[in-house]
Amino acid sequence: MSRPRVAIMLDLDWPYKRHAGIFAGSQQYAQEHGWDSIIDEYADDTIARAGEDAVPYDGIIARATRKLARRAARLQVPLVNVWFSSPVWRSLPGVFPDFFAIGRLRAEHLLSRGFRRFAAMTGEDDRSHAAEIQAFSATVEEAGFGCLSVQVPLNAT
Questions:
Q1: pLDDT (tens digit, 9 = 90+) per residue, 99-141?
Q2: Is the CB of residue 39 less than 8 Å from the CB of residue 58?
């Protein structure tokens, strides 16, 4: 029996710790379970070129885009989404950090150090930021303080 082949599509060219962490975790799991993992930042195009007869992957772990979700579904390739703000997050299984816990822990850390004024600046249309700010603000407000928050566009035009 051949080893399962799993594509990894995580935008690894972006120097984000969360991307590298997901990659490291998937590599550890692959090693422990006998998978071959293949970094393919264009897995959506790779599976489209392969066609139904020769799908090159048994599964894909990805920051899932609409195009990838559509193509994977058509070819019945299992897809796990790791992008909390993915446009297809509702239709795919996903694995995500607990952004509410992150926001709460950040607020608790600052409160424990005596901070009493709070503000947060986040990117627009980012579900992870929204979850963190919601929990951060709620924790600060429970402690009797306020938090000013503002969203800024990530793309300057």
A1: 999 999 999 999 999 999 999 988 777 888 899 999 999 999 9
A2: no
Per DSSP, 4 falls in state P
| Degrees, nearest 5: CA angle 50-51-56 | 45
Pairing of strands 79-81, 36-39: unpaired
pTM for the full model?
Answer: 0.81
Whether 143 and 117 have beta carbons less than 8 Å apart is answered as no
Count of CB atoms situated within 10 Å of the CB of 17:
7
- Strand 36-39, strand 59-62: pairing: unpaired
**Using an 8 Å Cβ cutoff, are 103 and 135 in contact?**
yes
Residues 15-39 pLDDT 10s: 888 889 999 999 999 999 999 999 9
Q: Which of 63, 40, 83, 100 is nearest to 55 (CA)?
A: 40
Task: Write out the two tokens for 89.
Answer: 């997050």
Length of the chain equals 157
